[in-house]
From TrEMBL:
Pfam families: PBP5_C, Peptidase_S11. One of its GO terms (molecular function) is serine-type D-Ala-D-Ala carboxypeptidase activity. Substrate binds at residue 228. The active site is at 57 (acyl-ester intermediate), 60 (proton acceptor), 117. This is serine-type D-Ala-D-Ala carboxypeptidase. InterPro entries: Beta-lactam/transpept-like (IPR012338), Peniciliin-bd_prot_C_sf (IPR015956), Peptidase_S11 (IPR018044), Peptidase_S11_C (IPR012907), Peptidase_S11_C_sf (IPR037167), Peptidase_S11_N (IPR001967). It comes from Blautia liquoris. Removes C-terminal D-alanyl residues from sugar-peptide cell wall precursors.
Length: 386
């Protein structure tokens, strides 16, 4: 017994992530789940998170990533009109009943996808962006690979397929959810809408249609702001739920739940657990970290700034008010220097141990001083001495 306790203690000490999972006494009915903090990517709980399963409509998270990629590149715009093809209209499952030839704006299509899980809207957007759903799916798989989604393969853009070659994992769903809400947080403005009317305008008629959010946690769970649900006979019931409290944003993924109530209750249980153990430290003191002397440059000094925000997630009840920061700037730097190059780092420690750092970068270019610049400096000094 004594040897067993020693081995167990050793495992806990060398695998802190396992320790977090072990402390969670969650009675979940879903076979595959994961809970992730979005800003750090820290996994707070997982259960069969790398098991390949059919994702149903949470496939559309990747579809949304590609849509927002195109918006960020200005290849498309929210006001652009998208025309529904006969193929897009033919989609079954969850749909918003777009007619062939019907035009809706990109923004309306996004709402149809993220609020009402419209398969027809997803295919219409795929065709609008890539020319065909097949080409769009190829881009989805390439994007997934770039995110490190090693256990994922898509065969359509909406999750309607029942092919065994269309699969992902709870862990991979968390990764793509993190990518979407981190780089394109505006998607949460859409996914948090409970109900909204759109207007179908066709040759036959003009009529309103109400989009109702398929994610009931938006209405019932404090802080839930999205993200996406899905269900088919093979996938059963899935959800990737995003919730925010006290600057902490969590992603709870449930796959294969036996019914729609269980997927939401399991997601809520994980979110409750996460908010119960998490404390987040964010360094909001970003005053100028100082200037650095430059040798051989057109300027004698250069300023620097923080490359990004420092965030530290605690799940062990540590005294975050005791976090200390030390700024370490490079010395004896020589021109040329480029704006954005590393100038040093801000190191954060807690209880004597480093918990992370943020790079400091030069805030402007400093070219090497040429002959004309040196001559100008000498002449300036002469005039001042005269």
């Amino acid at each position: 017994m004594k040897k067993f306790l020693i081995v167990l203690l050793t495992l806990v000490m060398i695998t802190p992530s396992l320790c977090i999972t072990a402390r969670a006494d969650l009675e979940l009915a879903s076979p595959s789940t994961i809970l992730m903090e979005s800003s750090t990517g820290k996994i707070l709980y997982e259960q069969n998170a790398d098991e390949q399963r059919s994702p149903a409509s949470i496939t559309k998270i990747m579809t949304l990533i590609l849509i927002f990629d195109e918006l960020s590149k200005e290849n498309i715009h929210l006001t652009d009109e998208v025309t529904t093809s006969a193929y897009a209209k033919s989609m079954g499952g969850s749909q918003v009943f777009l007619e062939e030839g019907e035009q809706q704006s990109v923004e309306t299509m996004i709402k149809c996808i993220v609020i009402a899980s419209g398969n027809d809207a997803s295919v219409a957007m795929a065709e609008h962006i890539a020319g065909s759903e097949a080409e769009f799916v190829s881009r989805m798989n390439a994007r997934a690979k770039g995110l490190g989604m090693e256990n994922t393969n898509f065969e359509d853009c909406c999750g309607l397929t029942e092919s065994t070659n269309h699969y992902t994992t709870a862990h991979d769903v968390a990764l793509m959810s993190k990518e979407l809400i981190t780089h394109y947080p505006q998607v949460l403005d859409y996914s948090s809408i409970w109900m909204e009317d759109i207007t179908h305008v066709t040759k036959q008629e003009t009529k309103p249609f109400t989009l109702s959010n398929t994610n009931k946690l938006v209405h019932s769970y404090d802080g839930c702001v999205g993200l996406k649900t899905g269900s088919t006979s093979i996938a059963k019931y899935c959800v990737s739920a995003v919730a925010e409290r006290d600057k902490i944003r969590l992603i709870a993924v449930v796959m294969g739940a036996p019914d729609y109530k269980v997927r939401f209750s399991d997601a809520a249980s994980m979110l409750n657990y996460g908010f119960g153990i998490c404390k987040l430290y964010v360094d909001e003191n970003k005053k100028n970290p100082g200037k650095i002397d430059v040798k051989g440059g057109t300027k004698k000094q250069v300023g620097c700034t923080y490359e990004g925000e420092f965030r530290y997630l605690d799940t062990e009840g540590k005294p975050l008010d005791q976090i200390k920061k030390v700024v370490k700037l490079h010395k004896n730097v020589k021109a040329p220097l480029r704006k954005g190059d590393i100038a040093g780092k801000a190191v954060y420690t807690l209880e004597g141990s480093e918990i992370g750092h943020v790079n400091l970068v030069y805030d402007k270019n400093v070219p090497r001083a040429g002959y004309s610049h040196c001559l100008k400096e000498v002449w300036s000094c002469f005039l001042m001495a005269a």
